UniProtKB/TrEMBL annotation:
One of its GO terms (molecular function) is histidine ammonia-lyase activity. The lineage of its organism: Bacteria, Bacillati, Actinomycetota, Actinomycetes, Micrococcales. One of its GO terms (biological process) is L-histidine catabolic process to glutamate and formate. It is found in: Cytoplasm. Its main location: cytoplasm. Its EC number is 4.3.1.3. Belongs to the PAL/histidase family. This is Histidine ammonia-lyase. One of its GO terms (cellular component) is cytoplasm. SUPFAM superfamilies: L-aspartase-like. Pathway: Amino-acid degradation; L-histidine degradation into L-glutamate; N-formimidoyl-L-glutamate from L-histidine: step 1/3. It is an enzyme of class 4 (lyase). It comes from Pedococcus bigeumensis.
Length: 522
């Protein structure tokens, strides 16, 4: 899988597993997709196998000449098999609730295309190419929040996409306008597909939705982990803490890989801090140890890193998978299997919600220390200009606390739940889609919590003047001020400043500012 480095990159599917970068490029940056000639040849080869089975009038073949799920015992005559596929998609497009984000639907579509292009599903070439055309035209089927149990894949979400492929249902065009699929297809010059044997099943029987959300979350968390090291360094600096505890030899005593990476970041970010240098004299500084939220930040952020990378390993295995049931094996057999079960993905989605909540929790604790005169080492109460008249960042911390509390609830695993379905044929399900949906909310919450810490720590650093911050943290403070969050002063409307900080974190601009001094962070 490759992405060309142009203003309009093209992702070629079929030269190997799609990559994280490919998924992000298509989902968020509208990269175009094409199928490799080798993949199309394999698609044609496996389709011939399915068509041979379709001509078998005597033996039932699941998904070709039978019903689905608990209805698989019904043999479907030849004249009803096209209706069988249409009925499958129409009935399974049963989602409800709010619309799923465009980037999630585009990721889901790319990942289904990737599986179809393996030649293991028996799809026709023209059906696959029409799916690619829909994605490249920027047509996004309307997919709803509820409907997937994460077993037999993300059936309802994928069915809404398959319904659009048939020219039915509702989509949003490239400009975001909601319209009938038939109108969007006509405007884009796309001819709807008439599904043939097994194609409906091939289009909907995958874990693509939960996997797409996992990849997007991992991408975001990798950036947020570098941001968390930046905000931790700013808090240590602003609270007159020590960077001695981040020394490499100390972390070598506990060789957790993520911990060492986080500690290295903290050393780089705090290098040459005038604030830190002001209290190096042991006779002038009576504190023996900093609080856990300062001193243990590499241990916590490092453990989060290691969990994220484990999740990335699982996602990598999934990207190399062809999830469908039944599948056409390389030697031409058509075999039923259980690879559509979302357990591997569901578990790591839940793991990530847990660690995101804890990373937010330690960030909130660092923020709170700035606001308490008994712990802030000489700063005004709540960092207020005139405490009592002004409230400073008192309620910004409330906002953080509310988000962290919500994230703790979101950390309750979805994957431990299972509700039997399809008349007990599908009697154990993963709930991976639900795990993915709550993780997206958790990642958003973490971004906002880190933004409040950044805003608060920047205010404290400014209040330490004439002491000067490290060049890296100073660059982050300058970026914040340049983005529209003013220097300390009397109370003002605080929500817009929190939004400025949020955008600085969410866009990665905070990391860019720090790395302009430190070079690439881990």
């Amino acid at each position: 899988m490759t992405t060309t480095a142009t203003s309009a990159p093209t992702v070629t599917v079929g030269t190997g597993p799609v990559s994280f970068d490919d998924v992000v490029a298509v989902a968020r940056h509208d990269a175009r997709v094409e199928i490799s000639p080798e993949s199309l040849e394999e698609v044609r080869r496996s389709r011939a196998v399915i068509e041979a089975l379709a001509e078998d009038a005597d033996t039932a073949h699941y998904g070709v000449s039978t019903g689905f799920g608990a209805l698989a015992t019904r043999h479907i005559p030849v004249e009803l098999r096209a209706q069988l596929q249409r009925s499958l998609v129409r009935s399974h497009a049963a989602g409800s609730g709010a619309e799923v984000e465009r980037e999630v639907v585009r990721a889901l579509m790319l990942l289904r295309i990737s599986t179809l292009a393996t030649g293991r599903t028996g799809i026709r070439e023209e059906t696959l190419q029409t799916y690619v055309a829909m994605l490249n035209a920027g047509i996004t089927p309307v997919v709803h929040e509820y409907g997937s149990l994460g077993c037999s894949g993300d059936l309802a979400p994928l069915s809404h996409c398959a319904l659009a492929l048939m020219g039915e249902g509702v989509v949003r065009d490239v400009a975001g306008e909601k319209m009938a699929t038939a109108d969007a297809f006509a405007a884009a010059g796309i001819t709807p597909v008439e599904l043939r044997e097994k194609e409906g099943l091939a289009l909907i029987n995958g874990t693509d939705g939960m996997l797409g959300m996992l990849i997007l979350a991992i991408t975001d968390l990798r950036m947020l982990l570098r941001t968390a090291d930046i905000t931790a360094a700013m808090s240590v600096e602003g609270q007159l803490g020590t960077d001695d505890v981040f020394a490499a030899d100390l972390h070598a005593l506990r060789p957790q890989p993520g911990q060492a990476l986080a500690a290295a970041n903290l050393r780089k970010i705090m290098q040459d801090s005038g604030i830190r240098d002001s209290h190096r004299d042991p006779e002038a500084c009576t504190r023996v140890q900093d609080a856990y939220s300062l001193r243990c930040s590499p241990q916590v952020a490092g453990a989060v890193r290691d969990t994220v990378e484990y999740a990335a390993t699982v996602a990598g295995f999934e990207l190399a998978s062809a999830v469908d049931n039944p599948v056409v094996t390389p030697d031409g057999r058509v075999e039923s299997n259980g690879n559509f079960h979302g357990a591997p993905v569901a578990y790591v989605l839940d793991f990530l919600a847990i660690v995101a909540a804890d990373l937010a929790s330690i960030s909130e604790r660092r923020t709170d220390r700035f606001l308490d005169v008994s712990r802030s080492h000489g700063l005004n109460a709540f960092l207020a200009d005139d405490p009592g008249v002004d409230s400073g960042h008192m309620i910004a911390q409330y906002t953080q606390a509310a988000i962290v509390s919500e994230m703790k609830r979101l950390a309750v695993p979805a994957s431990v739940d299972s509700i039997p379905s399809s008349a007990m044929q599908e009697d154990h399900v993963s709930m991976g889609w639900s795990a993915a949906r709550k993780l997206r909310r958790s990642v958003d919450g973490l971004t906002r919590v880190l933004a409040v810490e950044l805003l608060t720590a920047a205010r404290a650093i400014d209040l330490r003047a004439p002491l000067t911050p490290a060049p890296a943290t100073g660059a982050v403070v300058a970026a914040l001020r340049g983005a529209g969050a003013p220097a300390p002063g009397t109370d003002r409307f605080l929500a817009p400043e929190i939004e400025v900080a949020f955008q600085l974190v969410a866009s990665g601009a905070a990391v860019v500012a720090a790395e302009s001094v430190t070079g690439p962070l881990n």
